[in-house]
Every structure is written in C-alpha cells, then in structure tokens.
Amino acid sequence: MCGRTCCHLPVDTIRRACRYIDYEGEEQLPEWKDEDKYFPSYNKSPQSNSPVLLSRLHLDKDADPSERIIASMRWGLIPSWFRDADASKLQFNTSNCRSETMMERRSYKVPLEKGRRCVVLADGFFEWQQFRGDKQPYFIYFPQTKTEKSFFSRSVDEKVWDDWKMLTMAGIFDCWEPPNGGETLYSYTIITVDSCKALSDIHHRMPALLDSEEAVSKWLDFGEVPIHEALKLIHPVDNIKFHPVSTVVNNSLNNTPQCLEPVEIEDPYLSYARPKATTKSSQKEEPELPKRPRQLMQKNPTPTKRNSAGLMEQWLKKYGEAYNKKPKIQ
DNA sequence: CCAGACGTTGTT
DNA sequence: GTCTGG
DNA sequence: CCAGACGTTGTT
DNA sequence: GTCTGG
C-alpha cells in the first residue's frame, strides 16, 4: 500500500529529472502548473501536495498529446460532485485506489473515463512491516545508476540528487470546484496492486509503478492509449530496492533526511526463534512468522507489448527502449 | 420511484 | 474502535 | 501511512 | 454526478 512518500527535491531538480522525448523526437522539460503549491518534504502524507505528471491535453485543448506537464496536486481524490465547501470533510478514504475494482468505483471510474490518468512523482515511498505488534518502516525506491548508498549519508552533497531516478506511480486525478467559489482543486489517488515478490515480506500491497519511459508515456497519453490498453500497465513491478529506516519517519511532522537513512535492525526472523512445543496439549496454532526481508537483484523490466498505432507506435520504435539512457540536457 | 452512498487499509 | 489532522 | 483525539459547561 | 438498495 502507499500512505507516505518522500519528495524532497526542489522544483528545478524535479523538472530536470522529468526530461523526456516527445513524439517529434524533441527533448522536453515539462512546465510546472502551480509550482508554488509544492513544498518539498522528506515526509509527505495524504492531504499534502506533490508533483504529478499529466498530458498537457488536459489543460490546452490543442496541445500535442505527448506533451507532459507537472502539476502540484492534493493527495486524496476529491470527486467532482462533492458538495461540502471544505474538501477535507470528505467522509471516505481516497488516497489509494484498488486496481482490481477501479472500473466499478464511482469515484474513480468517472475520472478514468475522462482520461484523467496521472503519474505521481516521489523520491520513493514508505511502507511499515508489522511484527509482534511493532512496526518497522522501510524506504522503497527505484534502483539507481549511482550506488544507492551515495544518497543516504548525513553529509551527502545535495548535488548527488541530480542523478536520482524518481519513483513513478500510476494515479487518477479529478477536478473539484469549491461550491463557494475559488480555484479548481486538482487531487489524485494512487493505484494499488498486490505486492511484488521483492516486497511481499514487507507488505501485501504496493503502489502500481510505471518502470519505463514507455509505460509512463502510455499511462499519460489518454488520447492515443484507451483505458483497456492503459490498464495492462497496472501490475506488480519487481524492479525495486528498499532498506529499513528509523521510526523517526512515523510522525509526518518529522521532515528530515534521517527519514531516508538506512538503519540496522534486529533480524525479525531470528527474533522469533523460540523452543518448539513438544506436547499435544500445547499444540496451539503458531502465529505466522514474518520472513526475513531480502534485497533481491532484479532483471531489467520486460518491455510492454506495443499495440497502438500512429505517432505513438513510431515514437515507441525510436525511443521506447531508450529507457535509462537519459540524454544530456544541452 | 427516492434515499443514500460514493473508499482503503488491516485484523484477532 | 474510529475518525481527523499532518 | 501514523499520531492523537475522542467533550461541554462556564470560568479566570 | 451516478449508481445501488429498498
């Protein structure tokens, strides 16, 4: 599941991390709508704003459909029909959306049918593993080109973050007009799936990750890629790294780099070791033991099947597999 | 037809 | 136990 | 997601 | 606004 992220990079660094190649083969930096509504934090919770990618076609009627923009949006989707004057009065949770039922849920089906697909950006997300009533948080993120360790020390040179590969999560957004007037509120939900093998020891759900440029492009391009094609992108993704972090992250007010710092933890598997019951009378059901989380080395993701025609297909032929070969800016 | 919901997570 | 606020 | 509140009257 | 339950 996904109820906390880290997104601490400044606007310009994020824009550079989001450079991409459009269908004309041109390198682009996305424009940022509502730049001033984004506040970087090592500890972002629902109701706060984070950067999301979306097709410019949502805002400009005759934009190139492959053109991406970044917008600051509220985490926790407010359906367009919500009538209370205060968005925070919504009486149900929309920070996550189950992929299995999203086409049946009124709050998600309607925006999905309008093509309101977005890609939520973060340095990574946090997940809490439960054992013996305790909770161990982990930081979870895409594998990096530079060694992961170089990002997490206390005295890290902030410039190393220029090389961070941001996490890209599939989301749905909606637009809400405050009944008493004011600006349109853009808000989003993060789609969840069963967890991948690598994460299954930590938790049984995870956000739907888009782990290639091709997947991001298809999820965003609601003009070229119909829902039934886009839904094929929503599945567990194993291309992931993680490490345990301090419980400092538990309190969302703790906005410090310590939230990312790896910590040594007592092996929960060993901590469960105890004598086995030998008599029939004490043959109670043993509580299930959490397994030792392992850092699994993952292969490159297999490219998604290509189905759509026209510009999209041409673009894919040329750039679809250029994933990770980021062209330099200038 | 009207009334009322509209959502996810986890869990002994 | 359940909801709100961060 | 976790942390922390969960309530009213009247009072200084 | 739209769907489900009665």
Automatic annotation (TrEMBL):
EC number(s) on file: 3.4.-.-
Keywords noted in UniProt: Covalent protein-DNA linkage, DNA damage, DNA-binding, Hydrolase, Lyase, Protease
GO molecular function: DNA-(abasic site) binding; peptidase activity; protein-DNA covalent cross-linking activity; single-stranded DNA binding
Assigned protein family: Belongs to the SOS response-associated peptidase family.
Role according to the record: Sensor of abasic sites in single-stranded DNA (ssDNA) required to preserve genome integrity by promoting error-free repair of abasic sites. Acts as an enzyme that recognizes and binds abasic sites in ssDNA at replication forks and chemically modifies the lesion by forming a covalent cross-link with DNA: forms a stable thiazolidine linkage between a ring-opened abasic site and the alpha-amino and sulfhydryl substituents of its N-terminal catalytic cysteine residue. The HMCES DNA-protein cross-link is then either reversed or degraded.
This protein's encoding gene: HMCES
GO BP annotations, alphabetical order: double-strand break repair via alternative nonhomologous end joining; interstrand cross-link repair; positive regulation of isotype switching; protein-DNA covalent cross-linking repair; proteolysis; somatic hypermutation of immunoglobulin genes
Taxonomic path: Eukaryota, Metazoa, Chordata, Craniata, Vertebrata
Region of interest: Disordered: 272-311
Composition bias type Basic and acidic residues, residue spans: 282-291
Gene3D superfamilies xrefs: SOS response associated peptidase-like (3.90.1680.10)
Polar residues composition-biased segments: 297-307
Highest rank taxon of the organism: Eukaryota
Enzyme class: hydrolase
PANTHER family: ABASIC SITE PROCESSING PROTEIN HMCES, DC12-RELATED
GO-annotated cellular components: replication fork
UniProt source species: Monodelphis domestica
Protein known as: Abasic site processing protein HMCES
